[in-house]
Amino acid sequence: MSSASPAEEIDEAKEREHFRAVVTAFKYYKLCSLDRIHKSEKIISILPQNHQRRLEKYKTYLAKFKKCLDMNNSVVHLIIKDVNTMFENVDHSVTDPSGTNGVESFGCNYNNCEIASQKQHKMQHDVEKVQSVLKNIVRDWSDMGAEERKQCYKPILDEMEERFSLDEYSDRSQIRVLVPGAGLGRLAWEVAARGYTCQGNEFSLFMLFASNFILNRCTEINKYTVHPWVHQYVNNITCEHQLISARFPDVCPSGNRPNHNFSMTAGDFLKVYTEADEWSCVATCFFIDCAPNVIEFIERIYTILQPGGYWINLGPLLYHYSDMPTENSIEPPYDILLEIIRDIGFDILKEQTGVKTKYAQNPNSMMQHEYDSVFFVCRKPYCM
Amino acid sequence: MSSASPAEEIDEAKEREHFRAVVTAFKYYKLCSLDRIHKSEKIISILPQNHQRRLEKYKTYLAKFKKCLDMNNSVVHLIIKDVNTMFENVDHSVTDPSGTNGVESFGCNYNNCEIASQKQHKMQHDVEKVQSVLKNIVRDWSDMGAEERKQCYKPILDEMEERFSLDEYSDRSQIRVLVPGAGLGRLAWEVAARGYTCQGNEFSLFMLFASNFILNRCTEINKYTVHPWVHQYVNNITCEHQLISARFPDVCPSGNRPNHNFSMTAGDFLKVYTEADEWSCVATCFFIDCAPNVIEFIERIYTILQPGGYWINLGPLLYHYSDMPTENSIEPPYDILLEIIRDIGFDILKEQTGVKTKYAQNPNSMMQHEYDSVFFVCRKPYCM
């Protein structure tokens, strides 16, 4: 049946394994998050009696956090409910070879403590990504995220409206916009909602699972609830802030969406998009620093844009692969990046530094992160 | 000669070992920091030719960063120059048992790759602390840090002036102020400069080595130069920002200081300060969340204050030991902390949230951290 080469088969097996690992992380979300609460309870239980007494009220909150985990877990389960068939080309609904269906014990066994500990560490890391998905739901699809979206998405959307004004382009569906690093899909959805044809592309399965749920299964406004900050144990003014809930989706993405002009793709931007002169506009938000080699991203954006097409970018230069021992990351600062963009052939039409932007920030936290992002608009010339 | 018990001897041996490890980290500062530049150069050298060409200018900056490391290394060497005799009770000027004097190779040897890699990891972690000392020098002792000091230290100093006004207390040297978590000593020095008798206490040898140099060896204003941001490779608008230098000290701490009323102690706050009713005032800045158990800190501050004495605090609740696997950290939020403070016996005279404060922030970075700190003033009552 299959004519795949051995190398392709290995790739496919690796992909299936990764898929299962991500599903498992969603399944373990509650158990791992609950472990953190149990740890706090245990620590308090071995304190001197008078310290325990002074933490009585705090202990009642730890109990409340467990209820928030239950709420979050309902959403987490909805997210992975139909992921096995979410991709048109692959069915992942195979039996879990461990046969444990996500209830395997992570306790240390006698024979191999070190491997068990490594496995637990990896699981915790993955569960933190699930926790971060919950925060991204708030950023992209809740009223609470409106301010962040205004900072990050509005400059891009305004620019698009300016570059492709209704006077000049009466049929906006002819304008093909690509949003790489689409995350939970709100920016791409907003672009499509304005009438442009828009495709979002995302690499992370954590994000793809959640965006699949929101974009395809959420048919009612504010039907679901998450407690996005329940995992933040430090820098709280009050435990009440840790309990705060957010409803989603603030709009009805599947109901309102003009399906014919909106799509999402899964996979590595550099592998998925190779066709030259295909897109009218590429919009990147908190994306270009996700490449080990940012030059490859810029070159590819140049290639896939139609002559006269626009690249609109907003975000910092965090360079996510910097200082990862196994990655060959390069980290050119903004001024050198601009020279590279020009050198590749773009005309830089607009550029601005110091654009205040937040990313999934807990508004009540005593620790606040803010990016002084850069915003720029480039054009691929009609002829070189 | 020694009448120490075996347990005390073990403690002393561990302390000596730690002392040597910290000295070694200072010695390896340049080598490890240089390694990071070499890594970038190597990554660029294996890129495609046209990418290498596009990074030519960036490569010239990597070369300039090396010169900054040399400048920093001169300061780093001055800092450890006389540390062997800095403590009155212990002479650490013993021969390094490895006999390598800080030029040992961290390359992987054939017999024990894993240990070599762990050792390298630990060294890198320690060298990052040296890099952070350089940033703390800017915070505490340079013109560039003036804004941060205004945010963090001024509210505390103003409060002290208000609580111990010159009308009531004409001889301020009778007022004994303790600053636990004194870091590089600027706040404690400022307190002493206002005439109060002040003692700073610090646990970290990294900080103690640097404060010893600044407080006891710096006799000339702005004599030395550091490049505090040269180790930040991401979120730069331009490489020029990575090159920025700061001169220090902005004041002459050893020359101007009224020596008789200012001192610094080394060691764990809970071990060093056990005497009841000793201090007129305890001032804590970015300190109380450095305890695994913050209640112990509050109880101890209460104990050591004279009846009628003040505790002035400013900082966030980052809880530095949170989620460290080996530590029993508790993380009560601010409102619960206030209840504990009252329960211990303090009268809360003043309290404020949302006090904007930064900590060793690179002003040009595209990523900005800001704390919404809490500020409060408590008093130990005259009678219970």
Automatic annotation (TrEMBL), chains A, B:
List the keywords (alphabetical): Methyltransferase, S-adenosyl-L-methionine, Transferase
Which Gene Ontology molecular function entries are recorded, alphabetically?
Answer: carnosine N-methyltransferase activity
Under which main EC class is this enzyme filed?
A: transferase
GO cellular component terms, A-Z: cytosol; nucleus
One biological-process term from Gene Ontology? carnosine metabolic process
Instruction: Give the highest taxon in the source lineage.
Output: Eukaryota
| SMART domains documented for this protein | N2227
Stated EC number for the protein is 2.1.1.22
- Which InterPro entries does the annotation name? CARME (IPR012901), SAM-dependent_MTases_sf (IPR029063)
Checking Pfam families in the record gives: CARME
Family annotation (SUPFAM superfamilies):
S-adenosyl-L-methionine-dependent methyltransferases
Family as reported in the entry's similarity comment = Belongs to the carnosine N-methyltransferase family.
Q: What is this protein called?
A: carnosine N-methyltransferase
